[in-house]
Amino acid sequence: MRRDRVTIADVARKAGVSKVTVSYVINGREGKVRISNETRQRIWDAIRELGYRPNAVARALSRQRTYIIGVVMQYAAIFGGWSGFILELLHGASHEAIEQQYDLLMYTGAHGDDAEHEANAVMDGRIDGALLLRDIDDPLSDILADSGFPHVLIFTRARRPDVYYVDCDNVKGGYLAAQHLLNLGHRAIVHLRGSSRSAPALDRWHGYVRAMREAGIEPDEQWVIETPGPLSDFSPLAQLMSSADRPTAIFAWSDEVAIRAMQLLRELGLRVPEDVAVVGYDSTEICNHTDPPLTSVRQPVYEMAREGVRTLARLINGERPRRIARVFEPALDIRRSCGSS
Length: 341
Prior knowledge:
Blueprint: H1 8-15, H2 19-26, H3 37-50, H4 56-63, E1 68-73, H5 84-100, E2 103-106, H6 115-122, E3 129-133, H7 140-147, E4 151-154, E5 165-168, H8 170-183, E6 189-193, H9 199-214, E7 224-226, H10 235-241, E8 249-252, H11 255-267, E9 277-282, E10 295-298, H12 301-316, E11 325-328, E12 331-333
Parallel strand pairs: 1-2, 1-3, 3-4, 4-5, 5-11, 6-7, 6-8, 8-9, 9-10
Antiparallel strand pairs: 10-12
Helix pairs in contact: 1-2, 1-3, 5-12, 8-9
């Protein structure tokens, strides 16, 4: 018998049981009926002897589940970067998916300007639910919510009260970063802000502004430079840091942007932290390996990703957890990039 043609009926005949009994054992549903240990062992012996491989599509149809969770970023290219944040996110999500007995699927081909097309791709039957990391004005979550498709927003907040999300208190995080620099005596502090479409970036900027104003300082417009990523145009920062009255500190909205800023400062002949102090955001492992090690606001990326998968698994199972918003607390990890440790 050719192995690629072995069916569940072949296993049932070999083990001397019904196809239903084999199905219960293969799918881990023995608790639905009474199946003896001896029968269960005969079935597994038959499976091994015949070389039977369950068809994943058929199993999904019978269960009406795929046991796959999709990770859907705003931009597919994010998966291909060197971001410590994304690595930590996927680390946490994959660990919790294993605990919940799900696989992860990274969506890289569903993106485009047509939100309905993207939503249809997400809901085409390949996954049971989705983790979304999207811009604040992105309509995908609204479409999925209106369709009743299980999803959880991660590392951003929801626009509507019925959508579950996992986020960090980014306003507090931005405040902690600016306050630390202010406490060190800095008054002219540049903020490298993320995209104006990013809720976390805007919240971190609000925290920065609040700390500055509490210190009696109105941030100069030139001090806030939109810098979504490490490949952004850093010429405005270079021009500012080359001026005679250059700022003495930088708060970047992400570690990757902070690290690129430190490289630029070195190119300009400026030392960190002797000439310019630098603070990042996320505090992933890479901060321990920069020169000097980067002071950064820590959001617990690993735990937040796990919480997102945990919540999504409950939604897929038909539960409605009472707490819709799970907001984690940030903390400041002080390293040497500000001249204090």
